UniProtKB/TrEMBL annotation:
Name of the featured protein: Sulfatase
Composition-biased stretches (Basic and acidic residues): 514-524
Keyword rRNA-binding: no
SUPFAM superfamilies xrefs: Alkaline phosphatase-like (SSF53649)
Compositionally biased tracts (Acidic residues): 495-513
Family affiliation: Belongs to the sulfatase family.
InterPro entries on file: Alkaline_phosphatase_core_sf (IPR017850), Sulfatase (IPR050738), Sulfatase_N (IPR000917)
Region annotation Disordered: where it falls in the sequence: 490-524
Length: 524
């Protein structure tokens, strides 16, 4: 931390926002006047890589500095455990910490909120206090038993289904303003108590389903009925429903309207920080945890692939150690933001809050604020940081996608209802890992052919060169970096067989957990 480093950090995740729909990345619709202005005060990163294409493992990486295979939070083990979080480390160092979100994954039952002095979840169907009670107990009970994981899948599916049915209209529109108000209140309270602070917010508006506030819908999707377009990605991905060009245009319009709503609320919070003389003393990180596909590669949503619209995410950082208005084209990983926050606040970390926990210490070669950023001194100690196997110049980002349990279950249900089946050898049943650098990406896929793209010549990833990657130097080097990462991670996933839990396991649950499922409509 330098002498002029801000005392506080505001960390904003725009959930499911792809960078191609933002003004700072050249979008031709005026979705983000607030971020356009913010970009003039910040550094804009062109090549930021998310460690996974969905919320839970990405946030666990943000909060631990670990890759998904290290922290283990995924759909087979849907909670973070055995790791000291960023919030725990900062709280122990005397910072006031808060987490406000409307994402059902960022709650006490996944342990992603561990260590925050204050947290609230604005998810309309399952509020945070409920998730920390009986459901949390049922969740943990089920996930500690392999045979009960199908039931745990249903609990997550419940949140997705109920959100899809109920998260519309005025109540949906109120979430992000409420998050902004709560964040401002936390900042005032922290400063009244004489504390420096770390505030983390996740904004869910751009996540399916898209039901934007009327003023933004009229501007970006005039005449579009949000209840008439396809709002369930599994219907499309399963083949049960087709979407024509006109409907895709309507969907993208609604998506733009949601992004514009996020931007307006961020602009409101930023303006308040400036008007109250807090802006200069606040480092600000704005990113997306992952993006979204709208028909590219015949996919809708953010499952079943590691394509760039999902994993090459927007990232803007305001800090005096970074150049104002600069555009960076070097590889950046979201995992590095853990170290960036520690570095900004002058906290070394590395001390477990509980015996047996793993705590990642500050590594300045992982901090965006450091002159030595990604100048890894050695690639030998891969047990400490598998990302360094990419090479001492740090040009690779790594992405992991474990077994898509919940999405696969929903996909199979939609397919079955339409008289279709999901092939055993398909991307829908596959685990994936990718290595990416600005000009090349190689993705290992467990059940179908690998995918390799020369991003400099083929940014839309339309020509798979996996069958001839050895003739392409950049792809050959990228595949080799991925192989080293896989070795450090314990081996490739290729050829793994996965067991299947059945709904019969529900009978082995305790009565309290069964009663909770009855309350939620999953048992008669």
């Amino acid at each position: 931390m330098t002498s002029d480093s801000p005392r506080n950090v505001l960390f904003v995740v725009m959930d499911t926002v792809r960078k191609s729909h933002l003004g700072p990345y050249g979008y031709d619709r005026p979705t983000t006047p607030g971020l356009d202005a913010f970009a003039e005060e910040a550094t804009v990163f062109e090549e930021a890589v998310a460690p996974a294409p969905w919320t839970l493992p990405v946030h666990a990486s943000l909060f631990t500095g670990m890759y998904p295979h290290q922290h283990g939070a995924d759909q087979e083990n849907p909670y973070l455990e055995g790791a000291t979080t960023l919030a725990e480390t900062l709280s122990a160092a005397g910072y006031a910490t808060a987490c406000y979100s409307s994402n059902a994954w960022i709650t006490p039952y996944t342990h992603l909120t561990d260590g925050f002095d204050d947290q609230d979840n604005f998810f309309e169907v399952m509020p945070g206090d409920f998730l920390s009670g009986p459901l949390a107990k049922a969740w943990r009970t089920m996930n500690d038993n392999d045979r009960l994981r199908a039931v745990a899948d249903k609990l997550v599916s419940l949140g997705n289904t109920a959100h899809e049915l109920l998260a519309g209209g005025d109540t949906a529109d109120s979430k992000t303003p409420a998050v902004m108000e709560r964040t401002a209140g936390f900042i005032r309270d922290a400063e009244d108590a004489g504390d420096d602070w770390f505030a983390f917010v996740n904004l869910m508006d751009a996540h399916l389903p898209y039901h934007p506030p009327e003023e933004f819908a009229e501007r970006f999707a005039p005449g579009v009925d949000s209840t008439a377009v396809c709002q369930n990605s599994k219907e499309y991905n399963s083949g049960a429903r087709d979407i024509d060009d006109g409907e895709w245009a309507d969907i993208r319009g609604l998506y733009d309207a949601e992004i514009a709503h996020i931007d307006a609320q961020l602009r409101r919070l930023f303006s308040w920080l400036k008007e109250t003389d807090r802006w200069d003393d606040t480092a600000v990180v704005v990113c997306a945890d992952h993006g979204e596909l709208h028909g590219e590669h015949d996919l809708y949503g953010h499952e079943f692939g590691l394509y760039d619209p999902l994993v090459n995410v927007p990232l803007l950082v305001k800090h005096p150690a970074l150049e104002t208005g600069e555009r960076r084209e070097d590889t950046v990983e979201l995992v590095d933001l853990y170290h960036t926050v520690l570095d900004s606040l002058g906290v070394e970390g590395g001390t477990p809050t509980e015996e047996g926990d793993e705590a990642v210490a500050l590594d300045r070669t992982r901090s965006l604020l450091s002159a030595d950023y990604r100048e890894f001194a050695t690639v030998d100690d891969v047990d400490r940081d598998p990302g360094q196997v990419g090479g001492p110049d740090g040009e690779y980002g790594f992405v992991e996608y474990s077994r898509p349990v919940v999405e696969l279950k929903q996909l199979e249900e939609k397919a079955s209802a339409a008289g279709l089946t999901v092939p055993e050898q398909s991307r829908f049943r596959s685990r994936m890992r990718a290595a990416r650098r600005p000009d090349a990406k190689y993705t290992r896929i467990s059940r179908i052919e690998d995918e390799a793209f020369a991003l400099d010549d083929d940014p839309d990833e339309e020509r798979n060169l996996a069958g001839e990657f050895e003739d392409h130097e950049a792809l050959r080097e990228t595949e080799a970096a991925l192989a080293r990462f896989e070795e450090a991670a314990g081996g490739a996933w290729v050829g793994e067989e996965e067991g299947e839990a059945t709904d019969e396991a529900v009978q082995e649950m305790d009565e309290e957990a069964q009663e909770r499922l009855r309350d939620l409509g999953y048992l008669e």
